[in-house]
Fold these 3 entries.
Entry 1:
Amino acid sequence: MRSLDFGLFINGEWVEKEGAIEIFNPYNNERIGSVSRADNSDIDSAIHFAKEAYRRFKDTSLYERAQYLKRIAGKLSEKKDILAKTISLESGKAIRFSTGEVQRAIETFDFAADEAKKLSGEMVPLEAAKGGIGRIGFYLKVPIGVVLAITPYNFPLNLAAHKIAPAIAAGDTVIWKPSTYTPLTAGICAEIFKEVDLPPGVVNVVFGPGKEVGERLVESDELRLVSFTGSLDVGKRLKKLAGMKKTLLELGSNSALVIDEGVENLKEVADRAIIGAFANAGQVCISVQRIYLHSSLFDEFVTLFVQAAREINIGDPLSPDVLYGPMISEKEARRAEEWIAEALNMGARPLLLGTREGTTLSPTILTDVNFDMKVVSNEVFAPVVSIMPFDSFEQALDMVNHSDYGLNAGIYTPYISNMLKAIKECEVGSIVINDYPTFRVDNMPYGGVKMSGIGREGPPFAIDEYTEIRFVAVRG
């Protein structure tokens, strides 16, 4: 594969800079490409051209916006092999999941194209009020303006699609700052935007560290919306910097899986939980981190789950047989290793104790844990799972809710009464019944409560976030 070297993408043109950010494969540390590093003048230029493009693009027809989105989806399909390989090389994600991510991104753009055609408002019955007699009212959904999209390393294509596609459908323009770990996927996407003749300035791509580039963009008064996916601490800081701008924040999770009394086919449940816990080395916002297991099933499930974890194929992410490869960096792998050691020192009992080699961490499964341990209370974002028994379903739901996060929860139960109880009581954005919490398809409303964030993704719902309501009252 050719070396992938990209400049900044501003106003439909490539801007080469002397300073470059070198990108290395986290699996073997081989150089795979580079991107130019934006300075303040580049940031100002991107803002200027995004604002100028918005003046024109906001008036494009719904049909035109849908056609752009369809063409982008088509080009993603044409380039699916190079995109999947690039995602694996720069993020360490196993190729089977990188390929799936590309397919999902194609669907996301297709969903957004469909929704663009339906963008409309609604009549308001003004005559229901005494003062509204003789008037008709309706509202339109109008574009919000220039949008900033800040995306993470773990889904460098599809999480970007969930920000860029709804913005185009809404008639907005975008400045995209991808993670400095995984900017090469963004470079390929910029090539696609140029190939489909997306008007210059509608999507601009700038590279650089969050402190230097991301924060300066967030502070700009010229932007109208900030959409960020990343850590809780960074999200809190960006929200403060954003001022009066609308902010959409997806700040991760500490997802729980509940396996209730009477659940059968535990082998199938364990196999699903293995994927939910360890795919992408656990670096998934809705990865299975906590498993609450009815005490009557504890021994049988643990035996199945631990044995399956021992058999996980870890290695080169380009191998089709590998479940997961490296973590994004040795720093992150060391951090996870430290959290495991802390839990063990605090009394956790290892059912399976992983070892670290550079950026690669093998699976760790713990029990006898408590909420004072980081592996239980924080987002571990690593191949680490804690299993805790419960005696009553109410106790399990209390433990699910004993978290600052609230994104997804998975509930296996054969009882309709417990299913309904979970739907009512779980403090999460999504409840997945009889499957793991890692379930997501791209037209569902995706987002959380509590510290998991603000707003919802999924084109039918995100477009509402990327537009404003303009009300009209007509006096007869």
Entry 2:
Amino acid sequence: MTTLKVTLRVDFGSDHAIGPGKIALLEKMHESGSLSQAARDLDMSYRRAWQLLDNLNRSFRVPLVRTSIGGAGGGGAELTELGQSVITAYRKFEQKINALALSHFETIAHKVSAGPAAPATPRRSIAKTQRLKGSARTAKH
């Protein structure tokens, strides 16, 4: 049977969100105690990891991770209580959503092709398609 998995992103308004990438970064930072090690573990540039962490910390009133600058004693990254709560809430919600998805899709999941999907055709954004349709209309008149 096909493995069914929902990829989950939770938006807190239009400017703040958490998803699988940010949660994985938080988890790796918790394991290693280091932003740079977490980035390496996720095959992510340090700059990208720092941007995600900065976005996370700015999205909440309390930081999710406290960092200290390296040096002779070394730097570090430590999850705050809120950071751990965000991971726990996300993972629990993810489990529930995946169970719900299975209950809705289990009767059709076995009909998914076992082979690789056909190559995707290039897709345009809806906005671009609408602009193109609009310009075609004005060209006809």
Entry 3:
Amino acid sequence: MTKIALVNNGCAKNLVDSELMLGLLSENGYEITLDETDANIVVVNTCSFIHDAEKESVDSILELINEGKKVIVAGCLAQKYGKELKEAIPEISAMLGTTDFLEIAEVIKKIEKNNEYISNVSDKPNYNYPEKIERQQITVGSSSYIKIADGCNYNCGYCIIPKLRGKCHSRKIEDIVKEAKNLTDKGVGEIVLIAQDTTSYGIDLYGKNSLSALLKELDKIENIGRIRFMYAYPTNIDDELLDVINNSKHIVKYIDLPLQHSNSEVLRAMNRPVLDYRKLIQKMRKKVKGLAVRTSLIVGYPTETEEQFEELCDFVKEVKFDKLGVFEYSREKNTISYKLKPQIPARTKHARFKKLMQIQQKISKEINESYIGKTLPCIIEGVTDDGFVIARTEHDAPEVDGLVYIKTDKNVVPGDIENVKITSASEYDLYGEI
């Protein structure tokens, strides 16, 4: 009997595709194992967003081939490189593009019959979510992701995703609500909505941004815990969306708003919206009581001057983001920024990264220390080896933000929400007791 294992690299959106592939394989009678050493065939779902992610995926492929496994490469790396990757690693058994993963069972059947290489990579990615497939979840914890759309209609200067994923394709509201109900019935405490750009959800189906309409329907689900959405686009943050968040029973007071920079010239070079971001964030915080704002920023983008970087530092000091991720620019072929000049030296990029992170560490510690003495509702994640209960506040998204470490003798259940008194804080994490 053929045993199949799957290695997932990259983002939560990739994770959902991996879980759909496992669902397809299960429906076709294949035995799934989480132990790669016990598998005959291993599917590697790859990431190609930046060079480091590509390296991680390639390392996974090479390691498995060296162990004698038949390897199927799926996802972004196959979509981006195709023939080049096969030439570099001829032992690869098959490739599936980003929107071709529904063929996984057929590809494996062919591999079982003969040793011929199989390539199934669409020239133009066109993502359609397979609603009839039941995901085989490999995530552990209190939260679960729901992919509400895939693909992107923007063309940011640093980003290859539209070429790898195609245009935005949304799922119907009723299908998403049905999945959320199923997850809630299984005991999932927090639903996390994801897409390349969640705030463009529904434009292709309903002719307008429909995230607010979706959130309203999800908020009606009986027994649903928390609802969170990630990856918002700044021009799509409107009054209706803010009002829905503010008035909801279940939507967390948290917005993930990747801005990438604050300087208007750098934003134009990035092909990003040039807005008064200070004014936007002030409005967001005014309309949503207790809102936490997360952003991500890129330093060392081609043409970024020292003065423009210092402007970004001043912006971060003034706005005081609750959560902040900083990334050094990664030069990727087939993006607008690849040919931009001047490119910034690696040493300069890293120095800018360190300086901005040091600024944010002070801000983050001040914000966290403001919670000391307060009691916060926290969703339980699990228990550490040394006996601490791990949890998250509503202001902390899974995998990207901080945690709450709790001392308690109380028996707690992952997914439940407990009131935790915060007793101390570090730059990124909180400590408390029940």
